[in-house]
Amino acid sequence: MKQQLEQAYKEVEGDLLKDLRQLISFESVSAYGSQLDECASFLKELLRGFGFSVEVVKNKANKPVVLAERIPRGNGGATLLLYNHYDVQPPEPLEEWSSNPFELVERGDRLFGRGVADDKGDIISRLYAVEILDKITSGEAGLGIKWIIEGEEEVGSPSLDAFVAEHLDKIRADACLWEAGDLTEQGIPNFYLGVKGMLYVEISRRTADYDKHSMYAPIIPNAAWELIQLLSRLRDKRGRVRIPGFYKRVKPPTREELKSIREIRIDYKRLMQQLGIREVRHKTAYQALRELVFEPTCNIAGLASGHVGKGAKTITPSLASVKIDFRLVPGQRPEEVLESLRRFVKRFGDFDINVYTMLPPARCRPGSPVVKAAVEAAVEIYGVKPNVFPSMYGTGPLASIVKHGIDAGMLNSISNPESNLHAPNENIMKKDLMRSTLQLASMFRRLAT
Amino acid sequence: MKQQLEQAYKEVEGDLLKDLRQLISFESVSAYGSQLDECASFLKELLRGFGFSVEVVKNKANKPVVLAERIPRGNGGATLLLYNHYDVQPPEPLEEWSSNPFELVERGDRLFGRGVADDKGDIISRLYAVEILDKITSGEAGLGIKWIIEGEEEVGSPSLDAFVAEHLDKIRADACLWEAGDLTEQGIPNFYLGVKGMLYVEISRRTADYDKHSMYAPIIPNAAWELIQLLSRLRDKRGRVRIPGFYKRVKPPTREELKSIREIRIDYKRLMQQLGIREVRHKTAYQALRELVFEPTCNIAGLASGHVGKGAKTITPSLASVKIDFRLVPGQRPEEVLESLRRFVKRFGDFDINVYTMLPPARCRPGSPVVKAAVEAAVEIYGVKPNVFPSMYGTGPLASIVKHGIDAGMLNSISNPESNLHAPNENIMKKDLMRSTLQLASMFRRLAT
């Protein structure tokens, strides 16, 4: 099938790049709320041209969501939901871009532009995979496709959960192809069958209305010292969280999941080098991956009290605060962790807790047909077995889909370690755009029977 | 003697206010380096007019220091060193001043202007105390006076120590009258026979070159957590410092010093209210004062790591730092405490220590003739016994004088709790300017025999 797919890709490549160029040209920055309607309208027309019935529906934040559907002519295949987002990160700092962020530019073997790796390139790759599927099956493939393309992903998808629940009839499918995975430096596709959950809180302590001259330190409370009392009890030396019950509901990895971790090929030493980490805690990639994938964390993301600027100032701080992200694994629920945290914190005094993010973890069933098809297609196109992670190390709103019984995973690969996601000079390899599209088409073909 | 002094004050009050007005008019802000030479030159001429031989000498920072001396006509008296500073704090925020900061303005029973309380009012008060002493003794008093007036006090007196050592022959005296003390709300003079020392450091930990996505939290070091490990061991729950040897050299208060604390009259509850402290740790003023005066402290003045701005950011910080001021008491030496701290910190990993300030504590002998004269003069002028603190709660460069065997204390009172030191609308009571001048003249008279 590979040759046939490559031939079809050659025929559509010019159109594909033209559509990608147009999609990139929209400054659809969700943080600024710019050109969201325009971009959604463009996608509506674009998808219509490919045989989708499309509507643009406003979510509860009054932001446009593209909902599309394509009924198969053939019979017997699965219905696949595609999830993407048309919004992008702000392009700033502009001076660090080598070309206009909102213009698709080809340099060497790479394509540059804001969103080309996250997530507009992915949208176009999927769209042309459907087109290629049509070509090689003469439009007779039995694959139903539903598509949700939101415009709030880069600001944390605050409305997605409610939107999915409300429009479940238009979203219900056998499986969901979430955003794209990525490629290792050696060109091995990384697929992810889930995400960690997240509880992001700010815990703060106020001991007085304003900071005091530190000559009073012997007799007045110091908010920083009080916060440190609390934090020093929140984790033990090895990093284990000491909130009672924190690990109680954690589902330990299955043998199958541990096996999948063992099979992953990453250059751990190189990753540590790239991260600039000199003190490596784990001897093997397996040990590191096991923690990255399966361990919940309690990470201080920010700490502030008193004088944080330059130089010396002699005050006793009246306010101290810490920002913590807990990444959660299957079995843990953010609401429950928050309740346990509240009870724990209470023991140490009068602290406030401000909640920023609550996202449950989510996992796709590892043996599901959609995963099988994705892996087989990857072997065909890339000539290697992909790395299949039971979960990403990071977080996303996958649960909004998965909780409705729809398996969702990141099962194609478009970016690589040098793609500068969320950063200036975002880019993908031209050949990875092709390979992602071919792998998707091959996967769709496998699911269409 | 009091009536005679009051009579003399009335005769000179007009000139005194005129000179104060001129001195206030100099914008001698050491933080900006403005009008320091002009102000020093003015003081040189002014003091000459009162019979002082005066020179302006540059210190190692090339800033002008006024050095003056007045040889007594009479015999048998002491030689007294006066320490003052002609520099002031920046006047900003200007919009919060009710009148021009550099113009002496009388409103109600108060005089307003930058420096009127700290330290220009004090200079003029001392100058006219000398004038009054001359008047009532017909210039025959046996009191020798030396005077050092520097222009770097408000930026931490970085050159004072070396300057004093270099010009010791012009500074050597039986005792030193340091900057002024203050008055309680009930009008009781507060005298201070010393200062605490200070070691101000910033301790920081860098675990990587830049902050990382917190999805890597399970396998990479977090600078904030590492700093908390250290800080949680630096003090115990009650606030006792756990650096080995920290308390070893602390000289416990003598019975005489404890007695002097017992005799101090302050409204402790009101002080706590003014500080906005709801959770009062000490039942009595004595308990609080005992700690304020005699306890060394380890105070977190600032704490920063990772994302300290608004909102949520999911990073694992690569840098964490804490600013700590240690206030030291007699027996402790900042160099030794720093060495103990370095050894202590080393146990917890690779932390950097940046030293901002090192000032030793200093104390005047409580029974010295200059203190006795000051107390007797205060009883005469104020009609109450002054509060005599063995030490301030705060810090200053007193040791630069005391280490040469010269007793130095804050033995007159010019500001009150509403004087807004270092703040907009700095002011003193007109009557306190008079009472300070009379008390000084009475004290000089007592030391002149």
From TrEMBL, chains A, B:
<dbReference type="GO" id="GO:0008233">
    <property type="term" value="F:peptidase activity"/>
</dbReference>
<dbReference type="GO" id="GO:0005829">
    <property type="term" value="C:cytosol"/>
</dbReference>
<feature type="domain" description="Peptidase M20 dimerisation">
    <location>
        <begin position="194"/>
        <end position="346"/>
    </location>
</feature>
<dbReference type="GO" id="GO:0046872">
    <property type="term" value="F:metal ion binding"/>
</dbReference>
<dbReference type="InterPro" id="IPR051458">
    <property type="entry name" value="Cyt/Met_Dipeptidase"/>
</dbReference>
<dbReference type="GO" id="GO:0009089">
    <property type="term" value="P:lysine biosynthetic process via diaminopimelate"/>
</dbReference>
<dbReference type="InterPro" id="IPR002933">
    <property type="entry name" value="Peptidase_M20"/>
</dbReference>
<keyword id="KW-0645">Protease</keyword>
<dbReference type="Pfam" id="PF01546">
    <property type="entry name" value="Peptidase_M20"/>
</dbReference>
<keyword id="KW-0479">Metal-binding</keyword>
<dbReference type="GO" id="GO:0009014">
    <property type="term" value="F:succinyl-diaminopimelate desuccinylase activity"/>
</dbReference>
<protein>
    <submittedName>
        <fullName>M20/M25/M40 family metallo-hydrolase</fullName>
    </submittedName>
</protein>
<dbReference type="GO" id="GO:0006508">
    <property type="term" value="P:proteolysis"/>
</dbReference>
<dbReference type="InterPro" id="IPR011650">
    <property type="entry name" value="Peptidase_M20_dimer"/>
</dbReference>
<dbReference type="Pfam" id="PF07687">
    <property type="entry name" value="M20_dimer"/>
</dbReference>
<keyword id="KW-0378">Hydrolase</keyword>
